[in-house]
Amino acid sequence: MKIAIIGAGKLGSKLAESLIRSDHDVVLIDNNAQVLQRINEHLDVLTINSNGVQIETLNKIKTYDLIIACTESDEKNMIICSIAKKLGCDKAIARIRDPEYVKQLDLIKKEMNIDHVVNPDMATSNEIFRYLVKSYTLFNELFVKGKVGMIEFNVGSHDAFSGNKLREISNQFNNMLIVAISRDGKIIIPHGDTELFENDILFIIGEKENILNFVKRNNVIDNSKYVKNVMIMGGGKIGYYLAEKLSHFGVNVKIIEIDRDRCKYLSENLDNVLILHGDGTDINLLEEESIETMDAFVATSGFDEENLLISLLARQYGVREVIAKVSRPSYVDIIEKLGINMAINPVSIISGNILRFVQGRNIVTVSHLLQGQAEVIEIITHDKMNIINIPLSELNLPQGIIIGSIVRDDTVIIPNGKTIILPNDRVVVFCRLSEVPELENLLKPRGGLFK
């Protein structure tokens, strides 16, 4: 597939890297020659130093299959996509982040002829929201129209689990599969000899009824884990979207924002949210606002180091759920090793979203989970896919890709090495974000790409 990316920022360069690994023909366009030079030093990609909104530039890529506009300007992205489609480009994706535009996306997509819109800030807030309210729901996710469920199970002090190896307690997971374990903020892909520890969190996929029975047997729901009070440092777009969702859910929310004009905007546009004008790194302010009584603290400022330090401080005050937004992927591992519950990178989330769009209509749902390190995907298989009619043991799947379940003719199958995937199966796949390009290769049809 021939793909043009307009805008060589963090998202544009990340997308170019991922798409090249998946054997797409990619061109990266930006009007900053120095940025393109730095990218060319570590990435083998065709670059064009030009203004992406100019007709002369867009004429060079009018025959491309897909154009992705991810400049810093929402308006420019919309115009680029609209003109590119009129010139002949097949599909167009625009990054649009402004809340005012988000309220009327359907109209914008229709009038501007944009096929898909991505919003890193909203996607990030959605993931944080789902993480914080997961204790309120029986199932973290439902797939295949409710036939397959996935839950998070905290081993805790359950004698039947803690201190045992998985093969020793396999009878506890009939027709279910443990696809991953979260331990000290790191994701572990388990095997039969994996020993469970008290603070492990198991991610279990299985038939809905079996999941329900497991929940009843082991008293999975813990009312003490409910989040009632949340403090957000940073009133930017992520903070805005997150506060809006949490307040509508009935959670008490405080936002600390240093910019007075931004505070005014937030107070005018958010209901039932306390807006505090001040420096979120001011320890005295945090103590005055009783940070120690918070159930969760979310650092969403534009500075990774600031988010890291204040998140560590929140941990010291005993906040149970601490989440930090980071822009540098290298910081994710550092933050998680320091005991912060979730380090989330908006670029990784949204690049995965776009890769799913590139894969085509056979991707039904995508659910990020596990502190932004992995996702669960529901797929409708195609008769030309590379994974069809081959025993799973012969697919040589990377360790970070696990087939969690297969639904065929309304029957839920928990697969083993001998299981064969057939056309029109609905398959639920667990995948680490680092393995997304490899998963895309497995899902590509033989001899071509989905349209």
Can you give keywords for this protein?
six-stranded parallel sheet; 451 residues; 3 domains; 15 helices; Rossmann fold; alpha/beta; Alpha-Beta Plaits
Describe this structure in words.
This protein has 451 residues and is of the alpha/beta class. The chain folds into 3 domains: 2-118, Rossmann fold, CATH 3.40.50; 125-130 and 225-344, NAD(P)-binding Rossmann-like Domain (Rossmann fold), CATH 3.40.50; 351-443, Alpha-Beta Plaits (2-Layer Sandwich). It is built from 15 helices and 22 strands. It has helices at 10-21, 33-42, 55-59, 74-87, 99-102, 105-112, 120-132, 208-218, 237-248, 260-269, 283-288, 304-316, 329-337, 346-359, 436-443, and strands spanning 2-6, 25-30, 46-49, 66-69, 91-95, 116-118, 141-143, 148-154, 176-183, 186-188, 201-207, 229-233, 252-257, 273-277, 296-299, 321-325, 342-344, 363-369, 374-380, 401-408, 411-413, 426-432. Strands 3-2-1-4-5-6 form a 6-stranded parallel sheet, sandwiched between helices. Strands 14-13-12-15-16-17 form a 6-stranded parallel sheet, with helices on both faces. A 5-stranded antiparallel sheet has the order 7-8-11-9-10. Strand 2, helix 2 and strand 3 form a beta-alpha-beta unit. Helix 7 (120-132) packs across helix 14 (346-359) and helix 14 (346-359) packs parallel to helix 15 (436-443). The longest helix is centred in the first third of the chain and has 14 residues, at 74-87. The relative contact order is 0.11. Mean pLDDT is 85; it is low at 447-451.
